[in-house]
Structure formats: C-alpha cells, structure tokens
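Final paragraph of the annual report: two paired records, presented back to back.
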Amino acid sequence: MKNNFDFAILGGDRRMAILAKMLENVGTCKHFLNSDGDIPERIEATATILPIPCSFDGIRLSCFAGAPLLNDVISHIYSPFVFGGRIPAEIRKELTARGMRVYDLLEDEALLIKNAQLTAEGALGIIIAETQRAVLGARITVIGFGRIGRALARILTALGARVTVAARSDAQLAEAECLGCLTVPLTELPTAIAGADAVCNTAPAHVLGRAELAAFSAGVPFIELASGGFNASSEVRFINAQGLPGKTAPESAAQIIYDRITDLLLRQI
C-alpha cells in the first residue's frame, strides 16, 4: 500500500538504484546524479536520500558519474527529512539550520548490525577467492572485534577456520575466546599476522606499521573492511573491501536501508 511519500535519491552505488525501485512501493522516487543529467534546482521530496557513505573524501558526493561537490548538492535540497551515511558535521549543521531533520544511517545501531553481517559474508567470498583454498583449516587473522569483526569471526569459526582475533579490549578478547578463537592483544599484532593465510582488518584505524608489514608471508592478502581504516601499502597484497555490501549484496543492502527509512518515516523519526 502506497503512502503520500515522495523520495529523491542523489548519487550512490548499486544499492541506491535498487532502493529507488523499492521505494516506489510506498510512494514515488526519483534517482539523480547517476548519469550525466543535472540535479534539479529544487528538490522538495518528503525525503532526500544521500549515498551511504555520502562521500569518501568528505568533499564530493559518492556517485557513478560527475562526483559533484557536497556543498553544491545540498544547496538544492528542500526536504523535511534527509538520510545518508557518514554525513560531514558541517553539512549536517547546515541542513539542520535550514529546518531539515537529518538522520545518519551509519549511526543507526539496528542497521549497522545487519550491515555487518552482509560485510562478513562478502569478506568470506573474498577470502575464498584470494587464498584459493578451503576455509576449513585456514589460518585467518581478524583485526578488531566490533560488529564486523564479531560477525566475521562467527562465520569463519563455524566453517572450521583457525581464527586469531587481535583487539585492544580485554572484554573483546574474552568474547572472541568464547567463540573458539585464538586471541592476542593489538600490541602483539605481528604475532597474529605471522603464518596467516589471510588478514582482515575491521578496525577503523591504520594498523600496519613496519613490524606488522614484516610479519606477512609472501602473497598473503590483507583485506581492508573498515570504513576509515584504509591501510593500503605496496608492501602487501592489499584488497580494498570498503563498502562491501554495496558490491557483493546490493539487493540485501538496499532492503536493509529501505526497511529502516520507511520505518523511521512512518514513525516520523
């Protein structure tokens, strides 16, 4: 059953294209800035939806084509509600000052938990493809034990991998141990990397120093899963897997966003 909602989606990846079709179940939806067309002078939809994340550099909108400046984009928005992911503070402040209610979906715990599961499933596929071996018996290091780290460790241990978790918190290390993982403090990360068949970073920090880089065996993939981590190095086999749900499970990722946005709107946030 349709409501009186109308939506405008600006930019984004495959998730946003699928989301646009889903939102037509509850109203009308127009998707802008994924082609060479110009953004309308005024966007007066019930809700404007920015990408998730809305920008990778904090300056330009995340989209397939054009990558316009965020400041230029928001000057066209006149919507009661604005959704997005990792919206820069100054952008949020400006929209709020103009009377809009801004909701950052990457601060929504319910969405983040589901998104972490999709990220972990996507990471599993990368591990299998990049190591060319079964997960059963594989030695895999997971750095960090937040939402994504937990989800990934659960999947890997269930499939018989020998998982080592490196984290800062004693409580996180204890939880990982209860899952059947080996654990090391983050200060001893080189020992967790040595001998691993794959290393996955879920901590939003640069974790590869000289000692860590030296601990990698030749050809072992380093899979960067953390938003804000980005540990690219020419000294290891680096795989950038940020924003993984939009790449490996766009339909499921779009469904999570759809469910959250429509629920919030029906409850008027």
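The closing record of the year follows.
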Amino acid sequence: MRTVAVVLAGGTGQRFGGDRPKQLHVLAGRTLIEHSVAAFEQAPDVDAIMIVMPAGLAGQAREQFAAGGHPKVSGVIEGGLTRTDSTRCAIAALGAGECNVLFHDAARPLLDQRIIADCVRALATDLAIGVAVPSSDTIVEVTDGVVTGMPRRDALARCQTPQGFRLSVIRRAYELAEADPAFPQRPATDDCGIVLRYLPGVPVRLVPGSERNIKITYPHDLDVAEALLRRLT
C-alpha cells in the first residue's frame, strides 16, 4: 500500500508569537517544516509528501521545495483556518485512490525514523493509528479551578504525531464530522479524535512515541530542541 506523509504547516502559531508563522522559524540552520519534510524524505517506506501551508505562503513553499533535494514532495496546498480544516483540504487533494496517509505536525521537527517505520508497519494491519508516550505526571480534571477528578496515570498517554489512517477511513470520518451540525461547537483537536467520535467501531492502535518528539509551541521550546539535537551529535 502506498504511503503519503502530509506535513501540516497551515497554522499561524499564535501562541508562539513573532512576525512569521511558527513553522518558518529556524532550528539548527533549517526551518521547522524543513526538518519534518527531511524526516519523511529519509524514510524508505514513505512514497510521497504533501505539504499544507497557510493561505498566501503556499507559492513560496512550492518554490522552496522545488529547488532540489526534495524528490518526494508531490504537492504544496493551502490549508484552512483550523487544523481539522487543513486535514480536510489534504484529504480532498489526495483524491479518491486508496493509500495510507500519515498526518504530521510541522511543529514536531525531531521526528525519528523508528517512529515513522513503526507507523507504516502498524498500518499494514490497522486502519487507524496514533503515536503516544506514557504520562509521567499525574493528570487531574479541573472545573472552575477546582480538581474534580484524578484519572489513573497508567491509563493515560500523551499524544504525538504522526497519526496514520487508511485514506478511505479518515475521509469517511471527516464526512461524518462535516455532516454533524454540533461539530463546530465541539471540534476535535486531532485526527484520531475525529475517528474515535465518528467511527467508534474502528480501533485506534497506539505506536510508541519518543520524549524527543516534542512539539514547538512557545519560543523557549526551540532552546529545548536545540539541546536535544546537540545531544545527538
């Protein structure tokens, strides 16, 4: 089964701040999106890469990734206002043919080859997979500043990306979400959440993640990522 990696870089990084989208900030000489694309370029089981950019930046990205060194990049498209909007744009651009698809946040630039290989291997037998690491902290439920619950830590995990699906499965989940008038008031934060809500009969199998696979959310996260990269050299 053909595998396509979709690098989601359609956000504006409002929590990060600054005068440019977060995914265009530089880490160790390359932008965050370049790190993510490079990881999939190096993965032997990934056949093609689609990049989702904010409106107005897709043309610039097309020129950048067409310049050479990115033979797997098959297209750069404009995303939507939200993460789920950008995923929906990617699903439409992938067309009707069946494939496996890995959705990855460009803000996770330290994705390693073991995770990618495990995701592709898992999709040989499962229709939906997520990547997660165990929670080392106790997580509490809070309402109006008051703790209302304390779930068992051994039953909790912290989600990462990629998240992988058979294309027909994630397409159907998004069709059901789009038909649900309540979805805009209760949106999902990621693609596994869409499948869990609208295709409850499809198990979402977990692939072990990595503590290195951090998400760049705030400026100081770049310093953490730089330190992790130096540790590898």
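The chain is about 35% helix and 25% strand. This concludes the annual technical report; the extension proposal builds directly on these records.
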